[in-house]
Design goal:
By secondary structure, this protein is α+β, with helices and mostly antiparallel strands. It folds into three domains: 86 residues, Zinc finger, CHC2-typedomain (DNA Primase, Chain A, Alpha-Beta Complex); 135 residues, DNA primase, catalytic core, N-terminal domain (DNA primase DNAg catalytic core, N-terminal domain, Alpha-Beta Complex), CATH 3.90.980.10; 104 residues, 3-Layer(aba) Sandwich (Dna Topoisomerase Vi A Subunit, Chain: A, domain 2), CATH 3.40.1360.10. It is built from 14 helices and 16 strands. A five-stranded antiparallel sheet has the order 1-2-3-4-5. Strands 12-14-13-15-16 form a five-stranded mixed sheet, with helices on both faces. Strands 6-9-10-11 form a four-stranded antiparallel sheet, covered by helices on one side. The radius of gyration is 22 Å and the shape is globular. The protein starts with a helix and ends with a helix.
């Protein structure tokens, strides 16, 4: 069967090329790349190069090169399809068993959810500038957020009750697509209610600039402070880093990782653009590989409270196992980077 582009990308994104090739070749870091003795021809000096940034390999001696799938295919002597299945099994990814109507329907639903998310992010962003969003605008002024920052992260403001649901229906999306996105809930009475109501909206994008989820922050002291998208067919929080798509537009030789959305946004506005945020305090292995793929040095800037310090220890364990160069940001007189930079 022919696997979809989304499946191929998922397999590649969850199989770091350095980690995979390191199981076959002893690699040594030199600059941004890794080098080793080529497994495909006889040589004494290492000319086999692996790029964690581009996720490709190339031998300057024999000319062989490709991505993680083609490497496994060549080193194991197996076909393209079997190489994909090998890597999928390694990353615990479930592949569709056939090109059934059900598989096609799932892919179509995923595509629709991405469209729902993209439309919603733009809708919330435009709504922030609307006269109906004065309380949202006041929050923006209070946080001293500039228009450039609002545009960079496509920040917005949500409405009341079922406003988004009604807009999405008028736009042509059906109930299945809307509910799967997690942006709307259906209550016991069968009524559709927006998940986010009167909240400052923060879209979460993946490295391919697709809107995969949202974080919604209250603009007063009510609880919960944040409501986040549930995991669904397009979103798994342990596989992504908030703001990486924005940070990658600049220099990511060093990456600072913080806990919260607003920490990252506030730092970015004040000129620290190489910043990302974990989507939860515990750094996952997948997030660790994302950091290592995109940076030579990782700086841990989690909160100074007990949970933040525990998160730093966990993150250090994750990153050390990847041979990553790492630093810990020391903050005095502030509970988080947002508060520290404002002071």
């Amino acid at each position: 069967m022919r696997y979809s582009e989304d499946i191929l990308n998922e397999v590649k994104e969850n199989n770091d090329i350095v980690e995979v090739i390191s199981q076959y070749v002893h690699l040594k870091r030199s600059g941004r790349n890794y080098f080793g003795i080529c497994p495909f021809h006889n040589e004494k000096s290492p000319s086999f190069s692996v790029s964690p940034d581009k996720q490709i390999f190339h031998c300057f001696g024999c000319g062989v090169g490709g991505n993680v799938i083609s490497f496994i295919s060549k080193i194991e002597g197996i076909g393209f399809k079997e190489a994909i299945e090998t890597l999928a099994e390694r990353a615990n990814i479930s592949l569709p068993v056939n090109t059934s109507q059900e598989d096609s329907k799932l892919e179509e639903l995923k595509s629709k959810v991405f469209k729902v998310n993209s439309f919603t992010a733009d809708y919330y962003h435009k709504r922030l500038y609307d006269s109906k969003s004065k309380i949202g605008q006041e929050y923006v002024k209070k946080r001293k957020l500039t228009n450039d920052t609002l545009e960079a992260y496509n920040l917005g403001f949500s409405g009341n009750f079922d406003e988004l649901y009604q807009v999405l229906r008028k736009e042509g999306f059906n109930d299945e697509e809307i509910l799967e996105s997690g942006l709307v809930n259906k209550n016991d009475n069968g009524k559709y209610i927006d998940r986010y109501r009167n909240r400052f909206m923060i879209p979460i994008l993946d490295v391919r600039n697709r809107v995969i989820a949202f974080g919604g922050r209250v603009i007063d002291d009510s609880k919960p402070k944040y409501i986040n998208s549930p995991e669904n067919i397009v979103y798994s929080k342990g596989k992504h880093l908030f703001g990486l798509n924005v940070a990658k537009k600049g220099d990511t030789k060093k990456l600072l990782i913080v806990e919260g959305y607003m920490d990252a946004i506030s730092l970015h506005q004040r000129g620290i653009t190489n910043v990302v945020a974990s989507l939860g305090t515990a750094l996952t292995t997948n997030q660790g590989w994302l950091l290592r793929k995109n940076a030579e040095e990782v700086i841990l800037g989690f909160d100074s409270d007990g949970a933040g310090q525990t998160a730093i220890i966990r993150a250090m364990e994750v990153m050390q196992n990847m041979g990553c160069d790492m630093r810990v940001l020391q903050m005095t007189g502030a509970k988080d980077p947002d508060e520290y930079i404002i002071k």
